[in-house]
Amino acid sequence: MWSNLSRSRSLLTIALLGVLLGSLSLLPTHTTKAAITAYQAADPNLAPYAQNVLDRFVQYKGQYWLGGQQEVHWDNSRKDEMSNAVFARTNPQRYPALRGWDFPIGGALPNDGQWMIDAIISDWTNANVIPTISQHWTPLASQGTNHQDMFTVVDIDRMFVDGTTERTNYLIWLDNIADDLQQLEDANVPVLWRPYHEAGGGWFWWDKDNGATNYRRLWDDMFTYLVTTRGLHNLIWVWTPGVKGVSTAWYPAGQADILGSDVYNETSGNYVSWYEDLGRFSQTKIKALSETDYMMDPALLSSAPFAYFMIWHTDMFYRNTDSRIQSTYAHWATLNRTNVGQIWNGTLGIAPTATPGTPTPTPIPGIVVSDFEDGTLQGWTGTNLVSGPTVNNEWAANGQRSIKAQVNLAATPADIRLAQALDLTGQSRIQIRLSAQNVGSGLSAKLYIKTGSAWNWKDSGTVLIDSGISLLTIELAGVPDINQVRELGVEFNALTGNSGTATIYADYLTVGVVNSNQPTPTTGPTATATRTPTQAPTATPTNIPTATRTPTQGPTATATTIPTVTPTNIPTATRTPTQVPTATPTSTGGACKVDFKVTSQWGVGFIADVTVTNLQPSALNDWNVKFNFPSGQTISNLWNGTLSQTGSAVTVTNAGWNGYLAGNGGTANFGFQGVGSVPILPSNSFQLNGVTCQ
Asked: Are 419 and 546 in contact, with CB atoms under 8 Å apart?
């Protein structure tokens, strides 16, 4: 029973029809490859644009999933920090298709998350990026301004007794939450709404010492108020158990759309068992990795077909290597901001049946074979193309130009190729960057090479390409006759039943030596190595084919040898240095300053942000920062660096991707979660590479 507290804001449902009609543009307007049966939503009046999200998750189950990242939700100035970190660690660069949020003060204060609401509306309106939202803080005690409120014991019975303080605060809290969610419905934004998560875990106020009955009472009350009383029909209800094996008594059957697993400290393969555990609650419900610290290998989707994953904000840094982040986001099954719209309008089609191969490895700086910056095709031709290839400046993976061709999606395969003899002795991989437009229900590509007199075929595996940058890679280890590459190219195949004309772009074909000390470039390598070295072998290869795998008339070109090169003095940063340093700076450090800022604090801990500025003229390829805590504080979690702490003495060294620190003002940043009182640390409390800062 609701109290007599004013509910004037609750009577907004009369606008629902207009909201629903305005949302129809998000539904697919064409027949998709698979018939769609509407998923049974918990809300019988769920808005069509939100229903479409559920239906597409069902349609593409086990084929694709959304890549997701929780943002720093307590600091407006850092709201894009985690998505930007994903972008910085991937090449081709990707932003997540899903972003996680949390009401900063849990709804205890009105409009406490307006900046978050604005970002969510912009994400969905401009890029079809879907939000998942949770809430932690209790509506009681200090009204949610204290981080520890979420862990307090709450007498839930009193929250349902009229006239009590608990009841009054609880109703205000629900109203504040509904007001924020109302803004999202007004903007036609579907929300993966994840309240009261990790049920039965016993650590949050909604289930701490209260049991399953009161938990279900809270869930039912919120569901009824938001859906029925306030008329919010944009909410997709996500429920998550606290631990594997939790009793089914905690499950709000009939009031949940998606079942989520919040999984920490598990290896990728163990996620299959978490997926299976969710089957105890329902075999038919959509399932998701609603929170996790360690990315599951997308190759496991066939056995654990989660609809999406969401890495918990800074856990991304210390549980996932850059290589794992790269390979997950480069995998054809992971949807990102460049192609997430295809799932909502149903144009992804069926995933390729060809073996996609291993996830794309981290790209490395290499010797440029083809970059088209001189305005010529540099020897590239094509077969079965509608037009092209031609040089253009409409798109480029690096520099200003690429080659462009058009493919008839109803008449593939087609290819672009370079019939040039190459000697790749000593090289480890070859890579090319692609982009495509108007791919219909799907266009796949594979980079291939042909070697030796037997025309040995080796390819990268099939990758679906779209309007983003797709990186195709061939690992050269074990390839026979690598000193006699006869031809290389890219073969295109449309999915069955596809039609229309796709435009494809290709750029920046490179080869290189694998070197673990090299950085992952964020915008393509900056080196300007010669495109085609002039050293030539003594023999002239023959029988280079012009189109198919069957050898035809050979060219007269003399083979070009790609020298074995181990790059030196390449900085270990990815912050786009303008040039490679000409000399390795010494590790003795130099003048510096440090900005230490506490961005959040509570009774027993704090979040700190540290920015280090290198004031000396010379750059640093690697850095370490040392300081001492004044009062026994400890660091429980650190990001953007590697931590070593002995007593009060702390050393932070650079991560693999941010070691380069330019001279005359170059900066590096790291942050951490501290335990204890908030310390006062002026700039001269820090040392950069052994030298005290100013």
From this structure: yes
Flag the least confident range among 98-102, 297-301, 463-467, 682-686.
Answer: 463-467
Per-residue three-class SS string for 43-104: CCCCCHHHHHHHHHHHHCCCCCEECEEECCCCCHHHCCHHHHHHHHHCCCCCCECEEEEECC
What distance in Å separates the CA atoms of residue 39 and residue 52, rounded to the nearest whole number?
Answer: 9
* 3-state SS, residue 524: coil
Q: In DSSP terms, which residues pair with 651 in a beta bridge?
A: 626, 644
Q: State how far the Cα of 331 lies from the Cα of 152, in Å rounded to an integer.
A: 42
Name the residue with tokens 């972003």: 99
- Omega cis (within 30) before 413: yes
Domains and CATH numbers, the chain: 50-345 (3.20.20.80), 368-512 (2.60.120.260), 592-693 (2.60.40.290)
Helix 322-330 and helix 81-89, axial crossing angle in degrees, nearest 10: 80
Q: Is 119 helix (H, G, I), strand (E, B) or coil?
A: helix
Contact present, 238 and 196 (Cβ < 8 Å): no
Q: Which of 504, 509, 544 is nearest to 414 (CA)?
A: 504
258 pLDDT above the threshold of 50: yes
Q: How far apart are CA 546 and CA 562, in angstroms?
A: 22
Question: Considering Cα of 177, then 233, then 260, then 62, what sign does the dihedral take?
Answer: negative
How many other C-beta atoms lie within 10 A of the C-beta of residue 601?
14
Q: Which helix (H) or strand (E) holds 326?
A: helix 322-330
Instruction: Supply the DSSP string of 485-513, one letter for each residue.
Output: EEEEEEEEEEPTT--SEEEEEEEEEEEE-
Closest Cα partner for 97 from 111, 87, 110, 107?
87
Residue from 361, 393, 328, 394 nearest 510 by CA = 361
Q: Give dist(CA 275, CA 269) in Å, integer.
A: 11
The amino acid that residue 281 corresponds to is F
| Closest residue by Cα to residue 102 from 125, 87, 85, 120 | 120
Over the stretch 556-584, which tens digit does the pLDDT of each residue have? Answer: 334 444 444 333 332 333 333 333 333 33
CB burial of residue 634 (10 Å; 0-12, 13-18, 19+): middle
Q: Residue 17: which pLDDT band, with cuts at 50, 70 and 90? A: very low
Q: What is the pTM of this model?
A: 0.52
> CA nearest 472: which of 526, 430, 442?
430
Dihedral angle sign, alpha carbons of residues 452, 454, 455, 460: negative
Q: Which residues are identified as catalytic?
A: 198, 291
